[in-house]
Design goal:
6 helices, MarR/SlyA-like, Arc Repressor Mutant, subunit A, 142 residues, HTH_MarR-typ, globular, alpha+beta
Length: 142
């Protein structure tokens, strides 16, 4: 059986580390054309085949509720960052596609954000980063 106290200390440390790193990286989005939440949508779409992803897949990757994701995507459609169309294979779903403007906005922020992530993670060795990746994937059931 897992040591409950150790589990709680590890969880709190993981949570606080994530929170502190996230706060440090929020400045990456200041003065850009996309918010952090919009960046998350574009991350999923731009990295998908044909820069398109199902709405449910985008929602699964985000830390906000499905109705909030839907409203966010509707605002992104209005701003010309993505398009949204019915899923031809599932009438209950939609396909979200990054536009060229959305992909450009994503790439502009991704460069800065990637450097920021590397800087924040730099106290860890490559072996520690591999171990962290393995442990977090195990916690997520991947």
């Amino acid at each position: 059986m897992t040591d409950r106290r150790l589990a709680m200390e590890a969880w709190e440390s993981l949570f606080r580390a994530q929170h502190e790193l996230f706060a440090l990286m929020m400045s990456d989005f200041e003065g850009t054309d996309v918010s952090q939440a919009e960046y998350d949508v574009l991350l999923t779409t731009v990295r998908s085949p044909a820069m398109s992803a199902r709405l449910r897949d985008i929602t699964a990757n985000m830390l906000i509720s499905q109705p909030s994701v839907s409203r966010l995507i509707d605002r992104m459609v209005t701003r010309g960052l993505v398009t949204k169309a019915p899923d031809p294979n599932d009438a209950r779903s939609s396909i979200v596609t990054a536009t060229d403007a959305g992909a450009r906005a994503f790439r502009a922020v991704a460069t800065v954000h990637g450097r920021s992530i590397a800087r924040c993670m730099s106290p860890l060795t490559d072996d520690e980063l591999r171990a962290l990746l393995s442990l977090t994937q195990k916690l997520r059931g991947i």
